[in-house]
Amino acid sequence: MADLDNIQSGKNYHLDKPHRNPAFELKGSNSLDWGMKNRLARIFNPRDHRTVMLAVDHGYFQGPTTGLERIDVTVVPLVAYADALMITRGALRTSIPPEMSRPVVLRSTGGQSILKELSNELIAVDIEDAVRLNASALAVQVYIGGVHEHQSIGNLAKVVDSGIRYGIPTMGVTGVGKELVRDSKYLGLATRICAEMGAHFVKTYYCERDFEHVAAACPVPLVIAGGKKLAELDALKMAHAAIQEGAAGVDMGRNIFQSDAPEAMIQAVRSVVHEAEKPQKAYDLYLSLKNAPVGSL
Ligand code: R5P
User: Fold this and answer.
1) Which of 170, 192, 196, 282 would staple 277 via disulfide (CB 3.0–4.6 Å)?
2) pTM of whole model > 0.90?
3) Which residue is catalytic, options 27, 158, 178, 203?
4) From ligand 1's centre to the CA of 252, what distance in Å?
5) Average pLDDT over residues 96-118
């Protein structure tokens, strides 16, 4: 019952303190609505505006990828070390415990396989299902220069619009066809188009020359994919160079889950992204975690 007799009236209105309106410092995101910012702050650590996303969505077009044959066995132990999980709705519902507290970046386009033209994608998730799954972001592949470039840009625009209705940000994913060169000119074109079409952050690839120009010209955060499996030290060098040259983190898959020691590798990647650790130091961390006796950590 309401306490009508002893209603407490407010006493301290802090009249000497102006109402605070701190800027939301994640690149390009200050004008977004509260829900968008809140979801982005779950993905990008508000302390350094960086993220280690674990990408495990490969099965959507290439089936049981090495390292992802059993997501329930191999990915679940890695989730605690990731800032966010990029995944399909099928893998999420079937293989990831709902008690997991990491934000989900939900793959939202698909419709082709490695046997066919890769750019021929459509929107593969209804926005209502993304809400049902508590997605923190939607991911849309965009194929600039691909056979179905126009269709894939249209997918991005539609998903951005749906996400805006519910306060869910969209990540543009720059898909690169076999025939396209991953240089700064191409990646600059692809990432900028994603941002201009409304993507709230963009996933791309690292390039050794002029990546800082790609990052500078993209007005929203960039994260890099890992690409094909490299030696661990080389993958850490790539992540380190990308961060130094303006990336806001990684959305890394094969270089983590195909490593000899995936839990050690994701922690080494975290040290590069969040602690600005040098690649050799991060590699030493990888080796020490890999070689630690079971149960000793
Ligand atoms: C590719 O289409 C998938 O979206 C992957 O999420 C992406 O390629 C990142 O994974 P990786 O680091 O293995 O390249």
Assistant:
1) 282
2) yes
3) 203
4) 7
5) 95
